[in-house]
Amino acid sequence: AQSVTQLDSHVSVSEGTPVLLRCNYSSSYSPSLFWYVQHPNKGLQLLLKYTSAATLVKGINGFEAEFKKSETSFHLTKPSAHMSDAAEYFCVVREINTGTASKLTFGTGTRLQVTL
Amino acid sequence: DAMVIQNPRYQVTQFGKPVTLSCSQTLNHNVMYWYQQKSSQAPKLLFHYYDKDFNNEADTPDNFQSRRPNTSFCFLDIRSPGLGDAAMYLCATSRRASGTDTQYFGPGTRLTVL
């Protein structure tokens, strides 16, 4: 079975400083990994995805993540936080397509707070 | 722009009164999913359709049903909403393609049960 652990339930940074949201995964196979962002009362927006191509993945809004197999990690980073980045972030692993659709396993989420 | 649309964005219903939530997509994807997300929790998959084939999760209560009349539309029916069913309901779609299957989410419908 696959699982995802988001190591911080809440992260607070100042505007203009770097962001690091940590995610570790467990998978028996080469996983597909995603980061989604959810702003208050909104749906989930795909930030970026890793699907066994380049290990450093660039996403939208200046975010990127690096897949490290040896550490089973997929941490999300951004060089400089903006107020609009304040949201809930979910790290997600996709199960092997054994059925008719892909099934996602979600982490518990990290709430990012950005202060002035 | 191709997208996933959910209506209404906010729905208020009374305890025990049936309610239907709607999802439509312009992505022409084969698969449509319904998730339930309670406050401060991760989304939980209720069921999905692959084309017309319905796939229920083992722990989804019988109170939740779904219909997919065509490729573009999918409905979530809650037959007798309880207070515990108050949540955000998210619709998502994906095209079944090995190695590149990404789910795209709609904005969600927030359901309040009085």
Work out the largest interface and the residue count of each chain.
A-B, 25 and 30 residues
Helical/strand content category of chain A? mainly beta
Q: Give the rounded overall mean pLDDT of chain B.
A: 91
Strand count, sense and closure of the main sheet of chain A?
6 strands, mixed
Secondary structure tally: strands of chain B: 11
Mean pLDDT of chain A: 90
Measure the end-to-end span of chain B: 36 Å
Low-confidence stretches of chain B: none
User: Globular, elongated, flat, extended or rod-shaped: what is the shape of chain B?
Assistant: globular
The largest sheet of chain B, given as strand count, sense and whether it forms a barrel, is:
7 strands, mixed
Q: Count every helix of chain B, treating DSSP H or I runs of 4 or more residues as helices.
A: 0
Q: Looking at the chains present, what oligomeric state does this protein adopt?
A: heterodimer
Report the sheet-strand fraction of chain A: over 45%
Describe the structure.
Chain A is mostly beta strands and 116 residues long. Chain A is built from no helices and 12 strands. Chain A has strands at residues 3-6, 10-14, 19-21, 23-26, 32-38, 44-50, 56-58, 64-68, 73-78, 87-94, 104-106, 110-115. In chain A, the strands form 3 sheets. In chain A, strands 2, 5, 6, 10, 11 and 12 form a 6-stranded mixed β-sheet that branches. Chain A is globular and about 40 Å long. The model of chain A has no long low-confidence stretch (mean pLDDT 90). Chain B is mainly β and 114 residues long. In chain B, 0% of the residues lie in helices and 51% in strands. Chain B contains no helices and 11 strands. In chain B, β7 (64-67) and β8 (73-78) form a beta hairpin. The model of chain B has no long low-confidence stretch (mean pLDDT 91). At the A-B interface, β5 and β6 of A face β5, β9 and β10 of B.
